[in-house]
Write a structure and sequence with these properties.
heterodimer, A: 326 residues, mainly alpha, 70% helix, B: 149 residues, alpha/beta, five-stranded parallel beta sheet, two-stranded antiparallel ribbon, 6 helices
């Protein structure tokens, strides 16, 4: 019976199918908001589904001189890595489906694998544009990963645990701490924007400079998988930020409402969707407002301001935790 | 209509290639992609890489310099692929027909599905050209590509 539920979790609800639909929905929300902010009508709601089905039905070209094994299987590894953290993120109660001690670090590691996959893809494509794109992706990794990890860990420091579920539980009990982590929220949001390689940080696939960037040589199914990696990265990344920084009073405590019929998991799940949608809206807003930076400007910005701000946030968190526990 | 056919109609991604035209058609094509016309409503996206695109939009007469490159860009596209010619130069060579450095229209090099005339055509006519290709998919016709081969 455990096996049955395990497969169900993996394939249906918080796993593959849910992430697929939610990721495509988020892509549509993002594109629609982007279009509305540019005074356009924007794509219809089924647009990402049509794109996916079309790409799955197209010819899948493997260029002659690529490294076949890396070229073919790297997208699948990135796909698996980006889906896994959803099981460690609390979605409908303050406890995740499979909480681990230290799953905050695990989620951060897994979420950086797609960027490394982009580098491997650029390397294995044996073509100039993907190679340039891959190097840019790897260079950017050093810029955004440090502030992202620093700010996410400061949530863990405040709660005194490396488990995402514990952080969310702590935030639900102490809503005021959310204000303390507000600078961290902004920094993590910008770092997520860079992680997902969206404007102003879309340097690795800058269309006007390096054609299609890292994915230039990809077509058909592999391109569809890599697009899904981006979409699901948006879902998982925004869920992670929602769990750490917005976990606070938005999560209902079970004892607060009706004791008879228990709708709390459902309401909490709706709140989770609202929170992650809010983060996607902010991401789309940033994408619309700013034009693309050069790679040196991006590194300057992230080391001077984001990393410094992340350190400051960590310092605040340590002082708070020391004053509280020590 | 099958699901795949529906998806192909709803998501035509284009890739743009200039074979040596005067840039007027390119400017009109870029104008067609501006928020004023908002072609993303129909799922049309401009893609940089020919491997991602479904429709190759070609402007200008084929010069001897670009002939091999045009063939190469076309060969890099994944099937099913369609070719749309924008501007009268690409349709027939126009005033450059018979010039010492010009091969002629696009269909001298690669199979063409839709011709959009004009010097240059208006953005609405370019969008209409894409709609012609979509009608072709809806009717279940093969791309010019497969019939020529």
């Amino acid at each position: 019976m455990d096996l049955f539920w395990g497969v169900l979790y993996l394939l249906l609800f918080p796993g593959f199918l849910f992430l697929l639909f939610f990721g495509l929905l988020f892509e549509w929300v993002d594109r629609k908001v982007y279009a509305r902010l540019q005074n356009r009508v924007g794509p219809p709601i089924f647009q990402p589904f049509a794109d996916l089905i079309k790409l799955l039905g197209k010819e899948d070209i493997i260029p002659g001189n690529v490294d076949r094994a890396l070229f073919q299987y790297t997208p699948l590894i990135a796909f698996a890595a980006v889906m896994t953290p959803i099981f460690n993120i609390p979605l409908w109660s303050a406890r995740a489906l499979f909480p681990l001690q230290g799953d905050l670090l695990l989620a951060l590691y897994l979420l950086s694998i797609p960027t490394l996959a982009l580098f491997v893809i650029g390397w294995s494509s044996v073509s100039l544009y993907p190679l340039v794109g891959g190097f840019r992706a790897a260079t950017m990794l050093f810029g955004f990963e440090v502030p992202f990890i620093l700010t996410c860990l400061s949530g863990g420091v405040v709660a005194g645990s490396w488990s995402i579920s514990d952080v969310t539980t702590y935030m639900a009990r102490h809503p005021a701490v959310m204000l303390l982590l507000l600078p961290g929220f902004v920094i993590a949001l910008l770092a997520l924007e860079a992680k997902l390689e969206r404007s102003p940080f879309d340097i690795p696939h800058a269309e006007t400079e390096i054609v299609g960037g890292t994915l230039t040589e990809y077509s058909g199914k592999k391109l569809a998988v890599m697009r899904l990696v981006d979409d699901i990265g948006m879902v998982v990344g925004s869920s992670l930020i929602a769990a750490i920084f917005l976990g606070g009073f938005l999560f209902l405590d079970k004892s607060l409402i009706w004791s008879g019929t228990d709708f709390t998991p459902f309401i909490n799940f709706m709140l989770y969707i609202a929170k992650s949608l809010f983060i996607v809206l902010l991401l789309a807003l940033v994408r619309t407002l700013f034009a693309r930076l050069r790679i040196d400007q991006m590194l300057d910005f992230s080391w001077k301001y984001l990393a410094t701000g992340g350190l400051l946030q960590l310092f605040i968190a340590v002082v708070y935790a020391g004053a509280l526990h020590g | 209509m099958s699901l795949l056919q529906w998806a192909r109609i709803k998501s035509p991604w284009i890739c743009h290639f200039n074979t040596g035209g005067c840039n007027a058609c390119d400017i009109e094509l870029v104008a067609a992609l501006t928020p004023r016309f908002d072609v993303e409503r129909f799922g049309i996206l401009l893609k940089g890489s020919p491997r991602h695109a479904d429709i190759l939009v070609v402007t200008g007469p084929v010069t001897l310099q670009t002939e091999a490159r045009l063939r190469r860009v076309y060969d890099q596209m994944a099937e099913p692929r369609f070719v749309m010619v924008v501007g009268v130069c690409g349709c027939s060579g126009s005033v450059y027909h018979g010039c010492y450095s010009v091969k002629g229209g696009i269909d001298r090099v690669i199979p063409v599905d839709v011709y959009v005339g004009g010097c240059p055509p208006r953005p609405s006519e370019i969008i209409d050209g894409v709609v012609q290709i979509l009608n072709k998919i809806a009717r279940g016709d093969q791309a010019a590509d497969s019939t020529a081969a």
